Amino acid sequence: MPDSVYRKLQEHLNQLPMGFPPTESGVDIALLKKMYEPEEAELTLALTPAPQRADQMAEKMGMDPGSCKAKLDRMGKRGLLITTTVNDERHYVLAPYIVGTYEYQINRLDKEYTDLHNQYMMEAMGLEVFGGKTSLFRIVPVEKSVESVQEILPHDVVKTKIMEADRIALTDCLCRLKSKAEGRGCDHPVRTCLSLNRCADFFIENDLRAEEITKEEALAIMDMADREGLVTQTQNSAGDLDYICNCCKCSCGIMATVVHLGLHNQLTKATYINTPDLDACTGCGTCLDRCMFKAIRIIDGKASIHPNKCMGCGLCTTTCPEGAAKLTKRSPDQMPDVPESVQAMYDRIQAEKGRPQAFHSFTEIQKTGIAD
Ligand code: SF4
Ligand code: SF4
């Protein structure tokens, strides 16, 4: 089949708020060819952000409904689309590359794929993800670091999100698996990421290395992440969340890019900043090792914080032997403007980029029953 189906697929994906830009080198097409078989590319051209049943897709494609359903279900397991249940029926949704089919390649990582992905990130997708005004991601402070903070905002308490979730799935960290596939890897645990509610269902029903866990088990994962010095990252939403990632700069593409290129402003900060008690600080430097954003220096024997680099993750506070490192709320003019929901985040990104297609979050689909 000619390359044209893959060019059409690139253009189709590029309609979304978080798109799939073309490249001069053609690595965008090479990446799509690696991920999608030609027939899968054709089927994806018929997918939309609005969920569709297999029989609707079959009618569009002129296919036998049973055969169409089998192909769509296989694509779900290959991480090429989103499945969700609407009115007790399985529906299929067009997935963006990030956050989407890239993260869903969890069972298909090999060196060829990761090389293509890395080249594509450098040439085009990095700018697509980090070049906009509204971030896809935000840092959430580690639970223990904000227990004593006055007037903590509800969306900064991960525990609340976990306790409110109907279902939680524990999944492997795609970034650490990818880094291992590249022959790098790090010693941090792999089983660290949480998916919530419909996103949890999606990971479990498509065998994307996920298992349902209890709220207590999820809270234990968050404690483990703190011990391991992992930064908690979620969608840039004050309301619903689909996932909670626990990231390290050794393997996480987002963290590594932010730290190495100094793109701290491209990641929405937490509401808090480390303001160490200088009387108590002994300048021991323990916090330097904990801070993956290079926000701390020791000056004249005391910890000094770079306000633009501190992301308010709180990791420095939980191991400070003197209890000197502590989070306080940023001033109102420095507070991040966090969208009220995942849908509001995507709507903002769509408006900022002038993209023709909206993207519907798992929550929005359930709330409104959006379907073709
Ligand atoms: S770990 Fe605590 S005591 Fe040590 S330098 Fe950092 S803030 Fe100061
Ligand atoms: S100083 Fe570093 S470790 Fe501490 S809250 Fe800020 S970013 Fe996190």
TrEMBL record:
Q: Which PROSITE patterns match?
A: 4FE4S_FER_1, 4FE4S_FER_2
Q: Where is the 4Fe-4S ferredoxin-type domain?
A: 272-300, 301-330
Give this protein's Gene Ontology molecular function annotations.
iron-sulfur cluster binding; metal ion binding
Name any one Pfam family assigned in the record.
Fer4_7
What UniProt keywords apply to this chain's record, in alphabetical order? Iron, Iron-sulfur, Metal-binding
- Keyword check for Metal-binding, yes or no: yes
Name assigned to this protein: 4Fe-4S dicluster domain-containing protein
What taxonomic lineage is listed for the species of origin? Bacteria, Pseudomonadati, Thermodesulfobacteriota, Desulfobacteria, Desulfobacterales
